[in-house]
Every structure is written in structure tokens, then in C-alpha cells.
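Sample 3 of the quickstart, ligand coenzyme A:
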Amino acid sequence: MSQSERSGLSEQGQATGTIAIDRFRPEDRPAIEQLYRRVFGHDAQEASRLRWDWQYRRNPNNPPDGPQIWVARDEARVIGQYASMPVTLWVHGREIPASWGMDVMVAPERQRQGLGELLFRTWDRHTGASLGMGLSEASYRLFQKLRWRDVGPIPCLVKPLTRRALRRPQWSMAANRFVSWLTLPFVRIVGRARPLVAQPEPFRRFDASFTRLWERVAGRFDAAVKRDATYLNWKFSEPPAIRYSMAAVRDAGEARGYVVYRHLQEPRGRVTLLVDLLADPEETEVVQSLLAWVDREARANDSDKIRTFAMHAGFRKLMRRAGYFQVKSTLQFAIKINAIELSSEFFQHTDGWHFTLGDSDQDR
Ligand SMILES: CC(C)(COP(=O)(O)OP(=O)(O)OC[C@H]1O[C@@H](n2cnc3c(N)ncnc32)[C@H](O)[C@@H]1OP(=O)(O)O)[C@@H](O)C(=O)NCCC(=O)NCCS
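Result:
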């Protein structure tokens, strides 16, 4: 809790008083909750309160001195925060400490005075790599202004399962019905069930063989969040407000690949979200079987479509073969790596990067 930064904002004539940015203290919780409600609204604050302890206090990648949350204060008043989710990043064959930035906010009356920039820079100075996913317009512009690399958006893929899958909220009901009727034969072909090559099995907790799976396949990826069993259990088995389903293909008890998914109701129909997956992208049969498992689960839950976000070109190719289509994505992804030197070429070729909706906290 020792790092504290005094701002020279008043030098720019944009703010008065002395602003300090330092680490979160447990007694800040009420003031932060109040600010969260003002900036993001009551419902978002309630949702945040439910997951806060899990998300920030119980993250297994936290440093010993607790959650990595930066708080901006004007004297004693909390006027902004930058929270983060520490992860270990596998990048270019090395592990480095990294963190996803999230729940960044500045009090409405203090916005556009340089405080956001100060919070971003403070967070970035204290991590080996700073990562941002699924940004608001304001934070996306700020990442751009500060010259984070824009390597997104993370491609979105959809597999239609019923004719309702192609409904658009901006079309009238009559237009939606007509398109549904017109596209039915096509949906029947792409949405058909594929045979399972290997038999995935559902499970609730990740055992040590998932750590070995990660160790075996990490070398296939140029960049990815390290997915060992401790991280995976925290991320997908233990969240308080979301219940994920998981299934894995095993070989003599050893995990060869897994999928994490859930079903939800959206205004225009039911969706199965394929939130995360891991396998050797070269092990086609394993990936195909996992995708076929998700198809069956989606159908059994009456979903109209499956939606996923996948950056790795190998996984996307297998998804397209399984009936997925790439559609417009709004899942922005910005990254800055501080711990090691990397050429700009590294950031231009992202086909070997493995990032999904399950990274960061976008599925909540
Ligand atoms: C995002 C946020 C934290 C930025 O804080 P801030 O103190 O206003 O940011 P700064 O004053 O340092 O702004 C720096 C740059 O960010 C961008 N920016 C900030 N607010 C913006 C807005 N409303 N629209 C577009 N760009 C914006 C601009 O590039 C700006 O540079 P400029 O002022 O030279 O044009 C603040 O706008 C906020 O709390 N927004 C609501 C919550 C939110 O969207 N959080 C992000 C969730 S991902």
C-alpha cells in the first residue's frame, strides 16, 4: 500500500486541490460502491457487489499485499478507481505478471480533466503487461490516446441452430419472420448435429491434469493467459453469480481439452455462450468433439444459436468447419507489454494468440 502518486493536475488548470493515487484500503469499500452506483448505475453496482470479494480478494494471482486496485483521492474523498485482475501472461515463450484493467471510473464532475489518464498510467507502471478487453467508447479512446496496441476486436463467431438465430432487433417482426422462413433450409444444413469423435464428459472442478494440459499446449500459443487448474477453478468453478458448465475430453484420465459454456435468454432468443476452450489446436478431433458437445448441450437447452469469441486462427478454422460464421465483433482488445521487449511485428500477427470471452471479466 505504499505506492502513492501526487498529481500535478492543478498545473494544467483543470482540477483543484491535491489529488493522490494510491492502493485500495478495505475502508474504501463504501465510498467506492457509492461512486460505482453514480457512474454505472444501481443494477451494475448490485452485480459488482455480489462478485467483488471473489473477483478482487480471492484472485489466486493477487500479490501478497492484496487486490490491485488504484484509488484516486482528493484529500479524503474517493473520486476515481482503476481496478485490475492480475493474471500470468504466457507471451513469446515466457511467463510474465500481467493484469486486466476493469471497473475504471472517474466521478462524473471530475471527468475529462486528465484523471483517467493518470489512473491508467499508474496501473500500467505496476504491471508487467496491461490488458484491456471490451472497452467503453471513453476508455477505448483513452487507450488509443495513450498508445496501447489495439489488437482487437476479438473475432466473434456464431453458429445458428434454429431459424430464430438470424433475427435482428432492428428489423420488424414481419421482416424477421420472412428471413427466418427464407433461411430455414440453410440453417438446417449448417446447424445439423455432427458425430462425436471422442466422448467429452461434464465436470465441476479442474483437477491437476488441466495444469498438465496447459503445460503441454502453451507452446502452441504466441500469447495467452496461463490456464492452470488453480486459475481455472477460480475463474470458472467459483464465481458467485454465474454458473458455468464444463466438459472435457480425456485420455486415460488426462485432460486433452475442455470447454466452458452457459445458456442465457436474450431479447431475441436463447443463446449458448461458448465462453472458453483449451486444447492443442492441432488436435482436430479433440476440438471437433468439444464443439459437437456444445452443439448438443445448446440444442438440449433450446438455444437458437451458439456464440463465441476466439482469436486463435486454428480454433476459428475448426469452428467454421463445424458450422460457425464470423460476424462483426465489438469486443475490443488493447495491450501494452512492459516486462519484455517485443518487436512491432509480434503485435501484427495475432493468429497464434489465444484469447476468449472467458478472459478478463466481460462475461458477467
Ligand atoms: C473512462 C474514464 C475513466 C476516463 O476518465 P477521464 O478522467 O474522463 O479521462 P481523461 O480526462 O484522462 O481523458 C483522456 C482521454 O480519454 C478519452 N475520453 C475520455 N472521456 C471520453 C468520452 N466521454 N468520449 C470519448 N473519449 C473520451 C479522450 O481521448 C480523452 O482525451 P482528450 O480529453 O484529450 O480528448 C471516464 O470517462 C469514466 O469514468 N467513464 C464512465 C465509466 C466508463 O466508461 N468506464 C470504462 C469501462 S470499460
